[in-house]
């Protein structure tokens, strides 16, 4: 069923608002890729402490979850562009503080984590609601594929440029340069966000919907929420550790930039191909293939973590992640748009999605903190990475029913459109 707040279905095409949202997303991702890839290294070099980075990440996830829930009311009241701009501006404030504090930032890691988590929560809440409003089941995979391509291009160029700059300048001045560049890109992102349209929402913000959805038995949302929680477990640990492991093995920001250049180039190909050719009817098998390969490749860590094994891991994961990630994202937003009631409460359902993801991220980072508190032995950390890294398989198990249902709906929709064309009746 169509979202009552959106026009007729796009039949796979992207309009001006779709493309503008891709630009806003691209600027935000580029600014974060420019500096975010190296922020963990920056803190590591100042502290040599896994736990400090983990606490920064954990606090960020907690603040992000709270921001989603609290800021949902402002988005529901039609202030999506304001919330989106505040999220981008908050990220600029984060890097401004990093510039101001320098290496003393490790003494204020709680403040930096809170600001980054709040800014990310504001941006992704508004972005995901706008994304739902400007896409539909026909063009959602295509949009996600192009968003992934944009992220891959940013991941190729920005970290490599950052690594090159840091390696050619004194360490502190190199980091300051890339943080300043990120500030400028965030400002451009705020300006681009002002061009987006605000669509009206209906009703009052339902503060208790996340808890009610979870408490209702035999609902289609129960397994989806479980899949999202499990997805979040992997995101938090791998998002923090992979770049740091590459740097620890090489001791070179330039080689970390080269690593992201290679893996992002592969991700570009993966996102382009999946976004262009993966159909809703094939999501279930595409997601399974991606999940299996992403899990198996972690076994490489048990043979020793070297730059070569990290490259193999990065290439395999970057190539297969789109098969896992695009169906996961598209299926959840298709479920939100599956009825008039859920479409009207799209803000609350986006909050539900993000709360589930952040619950998983918090759990994953808590597990990491507990593990490194008792042991930092390579074997122990490898076992943790394998357990956490197998999350995509369990997400797929919980998503199977939803993916099968949406595949049937997609086939039925195509059959209906074909019949209408044969009768020469207008579609949509």
The mean pLDDT is: 85
Stretches with pLDDT under 50, minimum 5 residues: 1-8
Head-to-tail CA distance between termini: 11 Å
Order of helices and strands: HHHHHHHHHHHHHHH
Beta-strand residue fraction: under 5%
Number of helices: 15
The computed structural class is mainly alpha
Q: Judging from the principal axes of the Cα atoms, what is the shape?
A: globular
CATH topology: Growth Hormone, Chain: A
Number of domains: 1
CATH architecture: Up-down Bundle
What's the Cα radius of gyration? 21 Å
**CATH hierarchy, class:** Mainly Alpha
Number of strands: 0
The level of helicity is over 70%
Main β-sheet description? none
Q: Considering the protein shown, what is the CATH homologous superfamily?
A: MFS general substrate transporter like domains
Could you give a short description of this structure?
It contains 15 helices and no strands. The chain has 428 residues and is mostly helical.
Helix and strand layout, with pairings?
Elements: H1 16-47, H2 50-76, H3 80-101, H4 109-134, H5 140-168, H6 171-193, H7 209-215, H8 221-250, H9 253-277, H10 283-296, H11 307-336, H12 340-344, H13 346-374, H14 378-389, H15 391-422
Features of the shown structure:
single chain; transmembrane helix; 428 residues
Explain this structure.
Pfam families: MFS_1. The chain crosses the membrane at residues 20-44, 50-70, 82-102, 108-131, 143-166, 178-196, 259-278, 285-305, 311-335, 380-399. It is found in: Cell membrane. InterPro entries: MFS, MFS_trans_sf, Sugar_transport-like. The protein is mostly helical and 428 residues long. It has one domain: Growth Hormone, Chain: A (Up-down Bundle). Helix content is 80%, strand content 0%. The chain has helices at 16-47, 50-76, 80-101, 109-134, 140-168, 171-193, 209-215, 221-250, 253-277, 283-296, 307-336, 340-344, 346-374, 378-389, 391-422. The longest helix has 32 residues, at 16-47. Mean pLDDT is 85; it is low at 1-8.
């Amino acid at each position: 069923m169509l979202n009552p707040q959106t026009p007729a279905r796009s039949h796979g095409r992207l309009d001006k608002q779709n493309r503008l949202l891709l630009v806003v997303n691209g600027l935000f991702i580029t600014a974060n890729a420019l500096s975010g890839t190296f922020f963990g290294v920056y803190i590591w070099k100042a502290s040599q402490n896994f736990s400090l980075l983990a606490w920064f990440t954990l606090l960020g996830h907690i603040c992000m979850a709270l921001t989603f829930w609290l800021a949902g009311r402002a988005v529901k009241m039609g202030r999506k562009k304001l919330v989106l701009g505040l999220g981008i501006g908050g990220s600029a404030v984060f890097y401004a503080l990093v510039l101001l504090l320098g290496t003393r930032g490790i003494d204020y890691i709680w403040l930096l984590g809170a600001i980054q988590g709040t800014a990310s929560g504001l941006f992704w809440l508004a972005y995901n609601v706008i994304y739902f409003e400007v896409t539909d089941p026909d063009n959602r995979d295509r949009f996600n594929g192009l968003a992934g391509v944009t992220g891959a291009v940013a991941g190729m160029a920005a970290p490599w440029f950052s690594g090159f700059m840091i390696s050619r300048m004194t360490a502190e001045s190199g980091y300051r340069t890339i943080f300043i560049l990120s500030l400028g890109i965030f400002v451009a992102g705020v300006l681009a966000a002002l061009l987006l349209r605000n669509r009206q929402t209906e009703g009052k913000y339902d503060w208790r919907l996340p808890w009610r959805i979870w408490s209702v038995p035999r609902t289609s949302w129960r397994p989806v929420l479980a899949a999202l929680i499990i997805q979040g477990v992997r995101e938090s640990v791998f998002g923090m550790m992979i770049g740091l492991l590459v740097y620890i093995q090489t001791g070179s920001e330039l080689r970390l930039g080269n690593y992201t250049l290679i893996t992002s180039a592969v991700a570009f190909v993966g996102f382009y191909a999946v976004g262009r050719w993966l159909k809703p009817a094939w999501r279930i098998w595409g997601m399974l293939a991606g999940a299996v390969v992403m899990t198996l490749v972690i076994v490489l860590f048990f043979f020793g973590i070297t730059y070569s094994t990290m490259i193999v891991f990065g290439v395999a994961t970057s190539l297969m992640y789109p098969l896992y990630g695009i169906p996961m994202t598209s299926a959840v937003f298709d479920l939100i748009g599956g009825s008039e009631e859920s479409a009207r409460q799209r803000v609350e359902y986006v909050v539900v999605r993000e709360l589930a993801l952040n619950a998983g991220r918090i759990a994953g980072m808590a597990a990491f903190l507990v593990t490194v508190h008792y042991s930092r032995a390579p074997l122990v950390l490898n076992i943790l990475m394998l357990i956490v890294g197998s999350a995509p398989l369990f997400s797929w198990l919980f998503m199977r029913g939803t993916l099968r249902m949406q595949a049937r709906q997609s086939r039925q929709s195509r059959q209906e459109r074909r019949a209408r064309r044969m009768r020469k009746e207008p579609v949509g």
